[in-house]
Specification:
Order of helices and strands of chain C: EHHEE
Largest sheet of chain C: 3 strands, antiparallel
Radius of gyration of chain C: 16 Å
Strand content of chain B: 5-15%
Structural class of chain C: alpha+beta
Number of helices of chain B: 14
Shape of chain B: globular
Structural class of chain B: alpha/beta
Number of strands of chain B: 11
Number of helices of chain C: 2
Order of helices and strands of chain B: EHEHEHEHHHEHEHEEEEEHHHHHH
Helix content of chain C: 55-70%
CATH superfamily of the largest domain in chain B: Aldolase class I
Radius of gyration of chain B: 21 Å
CATH architecture of the largest domain in chain B: Alpha-Beta Barrel
Distance between the termini of chain C: 5 Å
Strand content of chain C: 15-25%
Largest interface: A-B, 25 and 22 residues
Chains: A alpha/beta, B alpha/beta, C alpha+beta
Oligomer: heterotrimer
Largest sheet of chain B: 8 strands, mixed
Distance between the termini of chain B: 33 Å
Strand order of the largest sheet of chain C: 1-3-2
Chain lengths: ~325, ~400, ~90
């Protein structure tokens, strides 16, 4: 069921997930489109998430933006542009470098895998703070089997730091290491299922990345009955029209529905890009998520040596990193 | 002893890797039902492309994608025998390399061809057959009576029917391949000719007639009832004429028309993804139906090329496909689901999105009609056998028919 | 005339089927390999000899094991689908 409406306020709104935003030319959402989007969200009972660009919006937008309860996703160091009067604990700052100061309760840190390896100590300094850290690797497609050990060792290294924080009675939240310890079912991105994106052109997309791709025509054919570069799944005039909506759901993803790497983003944009089918994850996404899952298991076991912790959670020992390799056993 | 002829399983079915060379996209014919929308005379495979591809395949003997006991090297077109010189060279190279490399497929390989039969008699084709006699299977496509055949299978440009040029080669083919079967494709306009066509093929000496209705959405209101009526007439003729003893027609099978368990009968019908095809440009496909010349509305699903190899991510959807995930609820709950086929390529081409997980159901009514006629066939046949006190003998000697997968 | 005289196990069938296939493969390869290709030609000749020996060895072993009925000027045949052995006179 849809719960969130993501509104891209500009073509250059900050990228906050796996996909980079290649759009460099400003294209602000018309205020009338914004108003219609908000009304759509109100009528559908959706929580609005605004995605901000790195410049200050015209004054006439402020009242419109604040006409509804909302969550703000904005580039770090640009809080003043967002015109936040009261902090919302759900607001999200996005950085593609390691920031010195984080003002919100949520930070998305977007880096390439090699950057993460190189800056593991700097990143670990963010762990002990009172915000949630979402680490987002922006070049998943380049991850190879040769990187497996590097990633395992990195997470092991970070686990030791996290364990000390737990010993100090802190509760750090690092998506790739601590989320799985708290989950007993899949908690994925669910683009097109629990959230949908409205772009400045007044059309809906499964997520911002599909809009970027349409604008740059990297790949198309999400819906071949439309012009081939059109990735949209409806518009404000006619409402949502998601083709094959069931194929976005967990029960229609043969590999994922049997998987217990519950913290996986299960990014359908990456699926589409790498396997060419929305419901099938790539080898890279599967092994990275399983390395994280296994590291979470190790961390959970270590924490339990200190004291009772999430007794209802059971992360089993498994022999594979890619569920594709054991698909016949499902 | 009562002998009942039934469909034979394909050679090493399930244990053989199917590797297909699209040697040409040219054909003498322009069949009206042909799904190859992009046929042309330009895209002919070079030997270099074929050789690089063979080397790639044989270099990966231990890769799970190639870990099959046996191999079937398929040659298709267009019309493959237009490129008999190239094919001969390719087959010589395959044999030599399998032997030189001590590859385990040297003990278990076949060369397979689907041809329109027009140049079957020519010296180059005949020399090739003699040279590789123990490793060849050839299917000639003939659609039935002259009228039915020429309704669809016409020469390009002149639109002249090709029946006479094909039928003259049937005796030679059957002499060389006595168990040879033919493939008949039924489209809307062909329905009135089904019975006479099958019987005609039997009269030509073809004992195995594999028929299927086209998967594309071409069916008109009432076609299912006309189809059912034709099949019942055919059933009468086969049973009353005693043809069931020595001849087979794939329309009639004891295994179709049953409900299917969503858990235990959940395997994919189609072999796409387990097969591998290469075209003249050296692009690789999960099946030829995903090459551009086979697709109306979608771009080709290329899984790699002969230089860089297979991008395994692009094979993952095919290798994780199951029946229920791709089927609409009406198919999952269908009381007569078994034997209802699909083509993954047509599913992809007709899908609303870029996916192989959306099953096309254009043949739904046709399958149900087939099931009704099939039930009639078996009830009638078994009653006849009982009355003649031959049922037990039949049950003891009958061969199990597995559903054919492509 | 063909008479059913016995049956072998699936494993035994697989062994002779592989040898049968190999022999056919070698015979067809012999049609295209010339003596100029010394290395491969010699390998082929050697393999043909070895395969022929193994082939005959299988029939000798099996006939001794199962004591199939035989006849003067008769041959045994195997049906690869049923694993049955026939005496053909």
């Amino acid at each position: 069921m849809l719960q969130y409406l993501v509104i891209l306020l500009d073509d250059t709104s900050v990228a906050y997930c796996h996909a980079d935003n290649p759009l460099k030319k400003r294209n602000l959402i018309p205020v009338e489109t914004l108003k219609k989007g908000i009304i759509f969200g109100m009528k559908q009972n959706l929580m609005i998430q605004y995605v901000f660009p790195d410049y200050e919006l015209p004054k006439e937008y402020v009242d419109v933006l604040e006409s509804i309860d909302n969550i703000k996703i904005y580039p770090i160091n640009h809080k003043s542009h967002v015109l936040i009067e009261e902090d919302n604990v759900s607001d999200v700052e996005v950085a593609d470098f390691i920031p010195e100061k984080v003002e919100s309760k949520n930070l998305v840190l977007r880096l390439k895998f090699s950057e993460i390896l190189a800056k593991k100590d700097e990143i670990s300094k963010l762990f002990g703070n009172d915000f949630r850290l979402n680490i987002c690797i922006t070049d998943v497609e380049k991850f190879t089997d040769k990187d497996i050990i590097k990633y395992q060792e990195l997470l092991k290294y970070w686990n030791a730091i996290l364990l000390n924080l737990y010993k100090e009675s802190k509760t750090p939240q690092i998506n790739i290491l601590t989320d799985r310890m708290l989950l007993d079912k899949m908690h994925n991105c669910d683009a097109g299922v629990n959230n949908i994106t409205l772009a400045p052109n007044g059309k809906f997309y499964l997520c911002p990345a599909f809009y970027y791709d349409e604008k740059t025509t990297v790949f198309n054919q999400l819906n071949h009955h439309k012009p081939s570069s059109d990735n949209s799944v409806g518009d404000l005039e006619n409402g949502l029209n998601i083709p094959n909506p069931e194929l976005l759901k967990l029960d229609h993803a043969p590999l994922c529905r049997n998987c217990d790497a519950y913290q996986c983003r299960r990014c359908i944009w990456l699926n589409r890009k790498l396997t060419w089918d929305n419901n099938t994850p790539s080898h890279q996404q599967c092994i990275m998520s399983h390395i994280e899952r296994n590291a979470s298991r190790d961390l959970l076991n270590k924490i339990r040596e200190i004291g009772e912790f999430m007794p209802e959670i059971d992360i089993k020992e498994i022999s594979y990193l890619d569920p594709f390799d054991v698909r016949k056993e499902f | 002893m009562l002998k009942i002829k039934d469909n034979q399983d394909a050679w090493q079915s399930g244990m053989a890797k199917n590797i297909t060379f699209i040697v040409t996209k040219d054909c003498q014919l322009a069949c009206k039902y042909c799904y190859l929308v992009g046929k042309n005379v330009k895209e002919r495979m070079s030997f270099d492309v074929a050789k690089t591809f063979i080397d790639y395949v044989l270099d990966h003997e231990t890769d799970p994608d190639f870990a099959y006991e046996s191999v079937v090297w398929d040659f298709i077109g267009g019309e493959p025998f237009l490129e008999i010189g190239l094919i001969d060279k390719i087959c010589d190279y395959i044999k030599t390399e399998l032997f030189r490399r001590n590859h385990h497929w040297f003990n278990s390989y076949r060369f397979s061809f689907s041809t329109n039969g027009i140049n079957y008699h020519e010296k180059a084709v005949q020399d090739f057959i003699k040279k590789n006699r123990n490793h060849i299977s050839i299917g000639i496509t003939i659609d039935g009576t002259e009228k039915k055949h020429d309704l669809n299978r016409v020469y390009k440009i002149t639109e002249k029917g090709s029946y006479k040029d094909v039928v003259k080669n049937i005796p030679l083919w059957l002499e060389q391949f006595p168990g040879g079967g033919t493939k008949v494709t039924i489209s809307s306009a062909d329905i009135p000719y089904i019975k006479e066509s099958v019987l005609h093929l039997y009269s030509l000496g073809i004992h195995e007639v594999n028929i299927n209705v086209v998967f594309e959405d071409v069916w008109q209101e009432g076609d299912d009832l006309r189809f059912e009526e034709q099949l019942m007439q055919l059933a009468d003729s086969i049973i009353d004429g005693g043809f069931y003893q020595d001849y087979a027609c794939s329309f009639f099978s004891e295994h179709i028309g049953k409900p299917m368990d969503p858990k235990h009968d959940n395997q994919n019908w189609c072999g796409a993804g387990k097969m591998l095809s290469v075209d003249a440009a050296g692009n690789l496909y999960p099946c030829t139906r995903f090459a551009q010349y086979s697709l109306r509305d979608k771009e080709a699903w290329i899984i790699g090329n002969i230089k860089d190899g297979i991008d395994k991510n692009r094979l993952r959807p095919f290798l994780t496909l199951d029946r229920t995930t791709q089927s609409p609820q009406k198919c999952i709950e269908c009381e007569v689901a078994s034997g209802c086929a699909w083509c993954q390529g047509e599913n992809f081409d007709a899908a609303q999105t870029h996916t192989v997980f959306e099953r096309a159901t254009a043949i739904c009514k046709m399958h149900k009609a087939r099931v009704r006629a099939n039930n009639y066939y078996w009830n009638k046949l078994y009653r006849k056998l009982e009355l003649e006190d031959l049922r037990e003998q039949y049950e003891a000697n009958k061969r199990e028919v597995k559903p054919e997968i492509c | 005339m063909k008479k059913l005289v016995g049956q072998v196990t699936p494993e035994e069938k697989n062994e002779i089927q592989a040898l049968f296939e190999r022999r056919n493969g070698l015979n067809e390869l012999a049609k295209i390999l010339s003596a100029d290709n010394t290395e491969l030609y010699e390998k082929l000749v050697k393999d043909m000899g070895e395969t022929g020996t193994k082939f005959q060895g299988w029939w000798d072993r099996m006939s001794a094991k199962y004591q199939w009925e035989s006849a003067e000027n008769g041959n045994w045949e195997i049906n690869f689908e049923t694993n049955e052995i026939y005496l053909v006179v």
